[in-house]
Specification:
Helix content is 81%, strand content 0%. By secondary structure, the chain is an all-alpha fold. It starts with 10 loop residues before the first helix and ends with a helix.
Length: 412
């Protein structure tokens, strides 16, 4: 890839990081508070679950489109208009307060819109890093973005709950609008290299052609990249669902502890992911996919401890601590591998395809989530008396895939 920038913390990369912090934080606060609002006004757990699960459809549909837009438009201008659009949506939602805002379908539509915009924004940001970071600092740049993402998401989730309990929805919307407005201002000062691509035919023809081009590149022109697909999918299908669905069930149902304990556990585990991103950044160019997979294999083995403490019926406090520690360790290893894979894909993909290719691959984990979340819930219900079977089975499946992936990438 063409690179002329010699240092990582140049003006453009710094502004990209600032914008990512503000945008993701604002988005997470709103997309966490809105389902709370639905639960509050409807009293329906089913509608709450729908509000949590349905917006994933926006991510699956819009992420590839976002990649096409990122390659065909100036990235900094695209990010600016996305942030302006979200700010306008929030303000418009508040202006009609009292007329439609407490209608559940309106709130769900708003969630779908937020995730649609965020999908395009994530694809644009991911495709911008390789243009702003020098080749030898690309791994570090990806690690910084990942750490920023996790801290923003974790902080947004935690603060949303506290703010909603104390102040309700509208102060949260005001704060989020301010976050997006600040991000839009920062976007005005970013400059990302851009090469105009020819556009022929209708919009649908362009979308079909670009998606076909990216799929051909992944599967035929550079099939090494396709080796990332199965690990990415199964990480979310198996262990992503275990983190989001399984851990709360294990702690709340099987250990009989409160939701406060669940929240504390998830926060600590997320910090394990942050530490993984920092470690990947410190390793820099020394990190590659085989090394990342070694980390993950160790994390999978440690995850077995979650099932072991339930099988052996150890004291509740010790079981709780072991679940947190093994979960944090696994998230640590996953984030190291994620940075390694992102860097590999960026280095292997031409500039004119980077947005489309990354966005197609970014859909894979979302599909894993959409299948894994309900599947994890059903499995834990079916094996409610023996949940360790689910954990041991998940670990065995992931271990086989990780070892096979290690052998595959080791030969490249």
């Amino acid at each position: 890839m063409t690179q002329t920038i010699q240092k990582l913390w140049n003006k453009n990369f710094s502004l990209l990081v600032i914008g990512q912090i503000m945008s993701l934080f604002g988005n997470m606060v709103v997309t966490t508070a809105l389902p709370f609002h639905i639960l509050h006004i409807s009293g329906s757990a089913a509608l709450y679950g729908l509000a949590m699960g349905l917006p994933v459809a926006s991510l699956i549909i819009m992420t590839p489109i976002g990649g096409i837009m990122a390659d065909r438009f100036k990235k900094h201008k695209l990010m600016f208009w996305l942030d302006v659009s979200v700010t306008a949506v929030i303000l418009g939602y508040m202006l009609i307060s009292g007329l439609f805002t407490d209608v559940v379908i309106i709130v769900i539509v708003k969630l779908l819109a937020f995730n649609a915009v965020q999908a395009v924004y994530m694809a644009t940001t991911a495709s911008s890093i390789s243009f702003l970071a020098p080749p030898e600092k690309l791994t570090t740049g990806n690690a910084i973005i990942m750490v920023v993402n996790m801290l923003s998401l974790t902080g947004g989730m935690a603060i949303a709950g506290v703010l909603y309990d104390r102040f309700g929805l509208y102060p949260i919307l005001i704060g989020a609008a301010i976050c997006f407005a600040i991000t839009a201002v920062a976007d005005l000062f970013i400059r990302i290299p851009y090469k105009k691509q020819e556009t022929t035919g209708s919009i649908m023809q362009v979308v079909k052609g670009d998606l076909g081009q990216s799929v051909r590149f992944i599967t035929k022109e550079n099939p090494a990249i396709s080796g990332c697909i199965l690990p990415m999918f199964l990480m979310e299908l198996v262990f992503g669902s275990m983190f989001v669905i399984g851990v709360p069930v294990l702690i709340n149902v099987h250990l009989g502890m409160s939701m406060t304990h669940v929240g504390t556990a998830l926060a600590i585990m997320m910090l394990g992911g942050v530490a993984g991103g920092i470690t990947a950044g410190a390793m820099g160019a020394r990190l590659n996919i085989p090394k990342g997979l070694i980390f993950v294999i160790a994390g999978i083995i440690l995850s077995v401890l979650m099932g072991a403490v339930l099988l052996l019926d150890v004291p509740t406090t010790i079981a709780y601590a072991v679940i947190i520690a093994s979960g944090a360790a696994f998230l640590f290893t996953v984030k190291v591998l994620s940075v390694a894979m992102m860097t590999f894909i960026q280095k292997e993909t031409p500039d004119e395809l980077i947005g489309k290719v990354l966005s197609v691959l970014m859909v894979v984990p979302f599909i894993g989530q959409s299948i894994g979340y309900p599947l994890q819930g059903m499995l834990l219900r079916e094996f409610s008396d023996t949940p360790w079977y689910v954990i041991f089975g998940s670990a065995a499946l992931m271990l086989l895939v990780a070892i096979a992936a290690y052998r595959y990438f080791r030969k490249l």
